[in-house]
Amino acid sequence: MTEETPEGVSPEGIPSPEGATHIIETEYEIGQDNVEGAVGPFGFDIHNPVFLISGIAVVAFVFYTLALPEQSGALFSWLFSTVTKGFDWFFIGSANLFVIFCFVLIVTPWGSVRLGGVDATPDYSYIGWFAMLFAAGMGIGLMFYGVSEPMSHYSSSMGGTTVENGVRTDWAPLGAAAGDSAESIRLGMAATIFHWGLHPWAIYAVVALALALFSYNKGLPLTIRSAFYPIFGDAVWGWVGHCIDILAVFATLFGLATSLGFGATQANAGLNDLFGLPIGPTTEVMLISLITAIALISVLRGLDGGVKVLSEWNMGLAFLLLGFVLLVGPTIYLIKLFFSSLGAYLTYLPALANPIGREDVNFSQGWTSFYWAWWISWSPFVGMFIARVSRGRTVREFVICVLLIPSLVCVLWMTVFGGTALYQVVNDGYTTAQEAPLELKLFKMLDVLPLAGITSLIGIVLVVVFFVTSSDSGSLVIDTITAGGKIDAPVPQRAFWCVFEGAVAIVLLLSVGGLQSLQSMVISTGLPFTIVLLLMCIAIMKGLNNERRAMKRG
After folding, report:
1. Is residue 518 predicted with pLDDT exceeding 90?
2. 153 neighbors 305 (Cβ within 8 angstroms)
């Protein structure tokens, strides 16, 4: 082990640690297992086992789903039911551990460790950094569920509980609040914040911190396997590491495909509401194809010229829409609702986070288990992307910014958009948004506010650009994994994965189950990757202990 490393950048594009740090000495060199070459004018630099197996498996999956739609639809349905019902306790319990672990990092001396070494400085400003991590982590989901989830939980809570053959059949969280409008709002907002607050961002923080720590401080490749060096040693460069990285590719690919499917569905619904564009698979396929093409342009422009610029513009547009709805909507009501919802969240949190003995099975399995699997499937993508842009931050600064600030912004977003729709129902008697399909609820809520046509169009633009930034940054991450940790691999490789993300989303949307198929694949890949995240927590503790010792000696 060495304590100092020279400043500079490795040939693979990863900055060397600056100042006292604890480098892991290993004979493995980044890219040593890669195959380099060119096909015509297009170069490639790929990690042979990971790229080959991942690529073949994805192609085989696409052909299987297209060739046997009935059989694949039945399989997807079985996967979703089996995993959500059999492992809901595992998803919920694991997510609780990730939140606790993050708070431990904030309050302990581990938080003083700086990613990249004691002398490292941040690569991006707070505004640019926050815009990129937020756009990658939550964009499309907030647009899709900002109105629909608070409204759904409110409606199911108002309806009370129903029991058939001793089993709850309603979708209300906890014990519902039959006929009590005020308490149904509190419970609905608490359940929504539970799904979009601390727990998902803790999942992202764990993966991002592990990747950043072992790449920027330990000198290992920026890939998932590197985080497991303290546990498996040099075995991570063999098939143990290959399997971890391949699983990360699958989780990322299907997590992204699910979000792209939601985004296409909502964009289609919004365009139909505004311009009468037909709703259906054909339009959704055209939308995914068009937006994938835009994402390719962003890929060609690179991280700073593509996704960074789009993220900053999109976040500005998102907050413009947020501010507009807050000002022209029931402003005082929304401000009060923000604080009362935070109080309700803290009140209901122990019950919502309880992993065992739940009676609200539809809610805990159909909502919470799916969400946690979705976030975990997204975690390699979002985690690696956050790691790419977070060098120079201390662990404490990193966790606070990744965990607490985005959580509060999510609460604000859900309060303004969901709260406006709830106010329309309870105080104005306007129930159109409540009765509309999930993908239309946002636009129906905006319909009765001033400048409805303009704001709805802005909403569609936000969905599209969030779609593009997710596709671009997801391609960047998958390419880094399948290039053996190199972050400057040839651009055509990232373009390859960008196209395949769109292809997978299209195939799953066209399959028998539609969005259900997308959700099924997220669940199935999220389950094994939860174990990966739990092991990551152990590796992070080992790595931070070594860094603390290096700081004291340095």
Report:
1. no
2. no
Q: Is 327 exposed, middle or buried, given 0-12, 13-18 or 19+ CB atoms closer than 10 A?
A: exposed
The single-letter DSSP state of residue 249 is: H
* Average pLDDT estimate for 35-52: 81
Q: Count of CB atoms within 10 A of residue 253's CB?
A: 26
Residues whose CB falls within 8 Å of the CB of residue 392, separated by 6 or more in sequence, listed in order: 114, 115, 116, 120, 121, 122, 123
> Which DSSP state fits 43?
E
Distance CA 377, CA 372 (A): 8
Distance of CA 177 to the CA centre of its chain: 31
User: How far is CA 69 from each of CA 41, 260, 264, rounded to the nearest angstrom?
Assistant: 37, 20, 21
CB 18 within 8 A of CB 553: no
Averaged pLDDT for residues 93-113: 95
Residue 135 predicted with pLDDT over 70: no
**Which of 333, 363, 345, 362 lies closest to 425 in space, CA to CA?**
333
Stretch 295-320: mean pLDDT: 73
3-state SS record for 263-312: HHHHHHHHHHHHHCCCCCHHHHHHHHHHHHHHHHHHHHHHHHHHHHHHHH
**How are beta strands 34-39 and 42-47 bridged, if at all?**
antiparallel
For every residue of 80-148, DSSP letters joined together read HHHHHHHSHHHHHHHHHHHHHHHHHHHHSGGGGPBTT-TT---SS-HHHHHHHHHHHHHHHHHHHHHHH
pLDDT of 260 over the 90 cut: no
Stated as kind and residue range, the H or E segment containing 403 is none
Whether 466 contacts 313, CB under 8 Å = no
Alpha-helical segments (H) within 490-514:
491-510
| DSSP summary character for residue 17 | P
Please, are residues 355 and 93 in contact by the beta-carbon 8 Å criterion? yes
Using left for φ > 0, alpha for ψ between -120 and 50, and beta otherwise, residue 161 falls in beta
Task: Identify any residues that bridge with 45 across adjacent strands, giving them in sequence order.
Answer: 36
Is 451 in a helix, a strand, or coil? coil
The token pair that represents 281 in the structure block: 């698979």
User: Quick check: helix, strand or coil at residue 30?
Assistant: coil
Higher-confidence position of 220 and 445 = 445
pLDDT in tens, 431-449: 999 998 888 899 999 999 9
Has residue 217 got a pLDDT over 80?
yes
Enter the pTM of the model: 0.88
Q: Is 25 helix (H, G, I), strand (E, B) or coil?
A: coil
Q: Which two tokens stand for residue 205?
A: 């923080």
Instruction: Work out the widest C-alpha separation in the chain, in whole angstroms.
Output: 69
Residue of 337, 379, 333, 67 lying closest to 200 (CA atoms) = 379
pLDDT computed for residue 174 by the predictor: 94
HSE-CB at 236 with a 13 A cutoff on CA atoms is 25
Those residues with Cβ within 8 angstroms of residue 218's Cβ, 6 or more apart along the chain or in another chain = 21, 22, 23, 24, 226, 229, 543
